[in-house]
């Protein structure tokens, strides 16, 4: 063997190697194709090595492979799910169970629950009604598949981005949820719904699915199915409904209880908007002639037929509790309606009975069938333990079977001057000053002249509210202005503080931010906002709790089949500084001790409160609290037949009804009864400089040249002119009373006609001369 190195593909030089190969080639290794190692073959290039951060990125082959794997897994999952999930038998929704409602001590309050259902064939449902439902819930039902991915993605996006919780379900999916499954918001339930809907769509006709949907959907008023709904809302069989009525029933599918405008008249605007949406959808799909649609008017439903077991206060309490559970997302409406829940409320039976008795004794016993205005009288009340936030009593009306609307929770009456304390709280909270730089305290002087124009930082605002009975007070301090509910002072104070800050403070105290007519303008001080009695009680409970706020609670415990349902935790926070809340309590004690709320002294406990009267005497309020209990009472006027708000001038034989009269008297009797056996407690106030205690301020004399506190005009037993008196007297007022023979209470509605209507007040209502730029218009009396 030669000792020379061998080359791939050849032997030693001269014995098979490349002819003429030099010595330099002997050291170069070659590949099998004869080319030197490391040299690319012809037509091929070396791939550059991935270096640095590029080494971390997947290649396109990896990405493509991953996507294919995902597609295979999803497809396999869909096929597996479709094969494994069968169409189950109908759920137990049709088997009615009762919901049991208990007082806080465990005794039974009410039992509710038999499902009102009457199934019908699709052929019995007029096409106009079918089309209305489709226009409301699924306009492409007959042409689309059982699942609409685009709608599901859109609904999820709208929910995530804060545009409201929405459903992307088709009618088929909704039917599956109603008939085969339950209402639980779980992934497992949604997966089952997905596959059952697909399978059902392949095996059952669209007509049968629509028929099932119409018979299983919940419409409110305990009515399941379109036939039961037609009877519940219009007292008709389904075949007798016209198009407008059909569209209203279709509207209810979106939010059954919320769109029942008899139970919640404040929601009529939303219900009408949804009703218009349904009709416009029918026109768009060619199911309704445009000219016919233009002629339609909203078909107000009839009053609900209430079971006798819901008589008295029971129905109001059950309705309020159910609204609390559904609005807080604890149980959805359809699931709750199916029954089986045992619900322990926060309602104290002793306090509830005391409230009912107080309203009967102080107000209802004074009504006469011979006075038409007495038929308009309504009352509402709520009471909260400020330390716990528990609603311990709720007065909704004379009887749930006679007056269906809950006067404690409705949001359609002006709160009047019960809003003024929020202005002062805001002033102290922000350390606000007057236009001349004086810090606003209980002792700060304001000009209280009637129709004095509000002045802002840029000069006169054009807003000049009238005082009650057009009284000129001259220069008075804030405590006296609060005692007498002086509109001109508080409108100016709202401007000094900043209306936006006043609104923010009210919301922080507990007034819902979506309250109608809660506008940031100087008129906010006079209370054009239409918060509910319960809303105002929550806000006053925050003041009573030294500025600490926690949402109210109506439910202490919920169980079903022995399992306890989780309730939301009560989160308490310092909504406003304690000094601001306590300063407000101090001046509100003065209102009870010597102002318009002296009737509340009958509770025989240290108390703070504020009277209020709505525009045209349509509502009168007293909002007050002791250290142990915050309670608000309102007396309202409403025509039972038309639902229109009515003035209370002349009710019970008095010239006018105001917050210092019946509402304060009811408050006092209820508070005394509710706290019977508990020793009176004093307010523990921490006052800042300039905030006097009530003992120092309650007898604060007026300037020598100022007029008397609030003049009155003696009433007579004869029918009264509906317009309020405008001529003050020189005599100081007596205590507010409900006795027709006594002098009228001191919290009187605004007098003096406006010379020109203000914005939003085309009739030029008395008390809003010149209007309020930027405000809702319409005065609110003190």
TrEMBL record:
<feature type="compositionally biased region" description="Basic and acidic residues">
    <location>
        <begin position="679"/>
        <end position="689"/>
    </location>
</feature>
<dbReference type="InterPro" id="IPR023346">
    <property type="entry name" value="Lysozyme-like_dom_sf"/>
</dbReference>
<feature type="domain" description="Penicillin-binding protein transpeptidase">
    <location>
        <begin position="384"/>
        <end position="641"/>
    </location>
</feature>
<keyword id="KW-0328">Glycosyltransferase</keyword>
<keyword id="KW-0378">Hydrolase</keyword>
<keyword id="KW-0511">Multifunctional enzyme</keyword>
<dbReference type="Pfam" id="PF00912">
    <property type="entry name" value="Transgly"/>
</dbReference>
<feature type="region of interest" description="Disordered">
    <location>
        <begin position="1"/>
        <end position="50"/>
    </location>
</feature>
<feature type="compositionally biased region" description="Pro residues">
    <location>
        <begin position="701"/>
        <end position="735"/>
    </location>
</feature>
<keyword id="KW-0812">Transmembrane</keyword>
<feature type="domain" description="Glycosyl transferase family 51">
    <location>
        <begin position="108"/>
        <end position="282"/>
    </location>
</feature>
<feature type="transmembrane region" description="Helical">
    <location>
        <begin position="63"/>
        <end position="85"/>
    </location>
</feature>
<keyword id="KW-1133">Transmembrane helix</keyword>
<keyword id="KW-0121">Carboxypeptidase</keyword>
<feature type="compositionally biased region" description="Gly residues">
    <location>
        <begin position="767"/>
        <end position="782"/>
    </location>
</feature>
<dbReference type="InterPro" id="IPR036950">
    <property type="entry name" value="PBP_transglycosylase"/>
</dbReference>
<dbReference type="InterPro" id="IPR012338">
    <property type="entry name" value="Beta-lactam/transpept-like"/>
</dbReference>
<feature type="compositionally biased region" description="Basic and acidic residues">
    <location>
        <begin position="23"/>
        <end position="33"/>
    </location>
</feature>
<feature type="compositionally biased region" description="Gly residues">
    <location>
        <begin position="8"/>
        <end position="22"/>
    </location>
</feature>
<dbReference type="InterPro" id="IPR001460">
    <property type="entry name" value="PCN-bd_Tpept"/>
</dbReference>
<keyword id="KW-0808">Transferase</keyword>
<keyword id="KW-0472">Membrane</keyword>
<protein>
    <submittedName>
        <fullName>Membrane peptidoglycan carboxypeptidase</fullName>
    </submittedName>
</protein>
<dbReference type="InterPro" id="IPR001264">
    <property type="entry name" value="Glyco_trans_51"/>
</dbReference>
<dbReference type="InterPro" id="IPR050396">
    <property type="entry name" value="Glycosyltr_51/Transpeptidase"/>
</dbReference>
<dbReference type="GO" id="GO:0004180">
    <property type="term" value="F:carboxypeptidase activity"/>
</dbReference>
<feature type="compositionally biased region" description="Low complexity">
    <location>
        <begin position="748"/>
        <end position="758"/>
    </location>
</feature>
<feature type="region of interest" description="Disordered">
    <location>
        <begin position="678"/>
        <end position="782"/>
    </location>
</feature>
<dbReference type="Pfam" id="PF00905">
    <property type="entry name" value="Transpeptidase"/>
</dbReference>
<keyword id="KW-0645">Protease</keyword>
């Amino acid at each position: 063997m030669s000792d020379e190195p061998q080359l791939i593909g050849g032997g030693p030089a001269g014995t098979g190697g490349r002819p003429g190969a030099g010595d330099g080639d002997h050291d170069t290794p070659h590949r099998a194709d004869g080319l030197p190692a490391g040299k690319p073959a012809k037509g091929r290039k070396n791939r550059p090595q991935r270096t640095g951060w590029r080494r971390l990125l997947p290649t396109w082959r990896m990405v493509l492979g991953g996507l294919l794997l995902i597609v295979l897994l999803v497809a396999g999952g869909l096929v597996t799910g479709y094969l494994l999930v069968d169409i189950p038998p109908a759920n137990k929704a049709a088997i009615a169970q009762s919901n049991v409602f208990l007082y806080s001590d465990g005794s039974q309050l009410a039992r509710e629950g038999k499902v009102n259902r009457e199934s019908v064939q699709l052929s019995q449902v007029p096409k106009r009604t079918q089309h209305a439902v489709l226009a409301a819930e699924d306009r492409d039902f007959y042409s689309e598949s059982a699942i609409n991915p685009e709608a599901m993605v859109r609904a999820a996006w709208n929910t995530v981005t804060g545009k409201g919780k929405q459903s992307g379900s088709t009618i088929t999916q909704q039917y599956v949820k109603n008939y085969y499954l339950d209402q639980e918001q779980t992934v497992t339930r949604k997966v089952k719904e997905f596959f059952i809907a697909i399978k059902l769509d392949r095996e059952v006709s669209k007509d049968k699915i629509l028929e099932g949907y119409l018979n299983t959907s919940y419409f409110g008023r305990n009515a399941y199915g379109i036939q039961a709904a037609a009877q519940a809302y219009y007292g008709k069989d389904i075949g007798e409904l016209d198009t407008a009525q059909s569209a209203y029933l279709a509207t209810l599918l979106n939010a059954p209880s919320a769109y029942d405008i008899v139970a919640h008249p404040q929601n009529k605007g939303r219900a009408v908007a949804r009703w218009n949406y349904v009709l416009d959808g029918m026109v768009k799909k060619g199911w309704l002639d445009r000219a016919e649609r233009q002629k339609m008017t909203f078909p107000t439903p009839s009053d609900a037929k209430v079971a006798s077991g819901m008589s008295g206060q029971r129905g109001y309490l059950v309705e309020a509790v159910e609204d609390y559970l559904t609005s807080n997302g604890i149980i959805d409406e359809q699931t709750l309606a199916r029954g089986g829940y045992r619900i322990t409320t926060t309602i104290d039976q002793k306090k509830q009975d005391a409230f009912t008795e107080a309203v009967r004794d102080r107000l209802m016993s004074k009504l006469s069938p011979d006075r038409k205005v007495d038929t308009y009288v309504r009352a509402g009340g709520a009471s909260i333990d400020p330390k716990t936030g528990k609603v311990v009593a709720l007065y909704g009306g004379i009887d749930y079977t006679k007056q269906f609307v809950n006067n404690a929770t409705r949001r359609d009456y002006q709160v009047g001057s019960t809003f003024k304390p929020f202005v002062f709280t805001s002033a102290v909270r922000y350390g606000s000053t007057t236009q001349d730089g004086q810090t606003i305290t209980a002792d700060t002087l304001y000009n209280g002249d009637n129709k004095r124009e509000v002045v802002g930082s840029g000069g006169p605002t054009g807003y000049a509210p009238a005082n009650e009975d057009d009284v000129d007070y001259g220069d008075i301090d804030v405590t006296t202005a609060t005692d007498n509910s002086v509109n001109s002072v508080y409108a100016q104070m709202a401007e000094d503080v900043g209306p936006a800050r006043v609104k923010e403070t009210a919301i922080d105290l507990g007034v819902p931010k979506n309250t109608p007519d809660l506008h940031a303008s100087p008129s906010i001080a006079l209370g054009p906002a239409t918060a509910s009695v319960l809303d105002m009680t929550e806000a006053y409970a925050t003041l009573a709790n030294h500025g600490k706020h926690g949402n109210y609670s109506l439910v202490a415990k919920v169980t079903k089949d022995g399992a306890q349902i989780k309730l939301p935790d009560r989160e308490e926070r310092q909504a406003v500084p304690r000094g601001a809340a306590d300063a407000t309590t101090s001046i509100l004690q003065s209102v009870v001790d010597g102002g318009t709320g002296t009737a509340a002294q009958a509770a025989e406990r240290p108390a703070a409160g504020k009277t209020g009267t709505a525009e045209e005497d349509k509502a009168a309020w007293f909002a007050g609290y002791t250290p142990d209990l915050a309670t608000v009472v309102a007396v309202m006027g409403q025509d039972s037949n038309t639902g229109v708000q009515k003035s209370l001038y002349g009710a019970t034989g008095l010239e006018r009804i105001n917050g210092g009269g019946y509402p304060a008297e009811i408050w006092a009797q209820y508070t005394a009864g509710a706290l019977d056996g508990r020793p009176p407690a004093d307010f523990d106030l921490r006052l800042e400089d300039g905030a006097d205690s009530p003992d120092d301020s309650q007898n604060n004399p007026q300037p020598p040249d100022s007029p008397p506190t609030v003049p009155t005009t003696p009433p007579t037993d004869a029918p009264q002119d509906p317009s309020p008196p405008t001529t003050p007297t020189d005599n100081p007022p007596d205590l507010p009373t409900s006795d027709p023979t006594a002098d009228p209470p001191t919290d009187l509605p605004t007098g003096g006609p406006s010379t020109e209507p203000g914005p939003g007040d085309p009739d030029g209502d008395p008390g809003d001369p010149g209007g309020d730029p930027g405000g809702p218009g319409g005065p609110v009396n003190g």
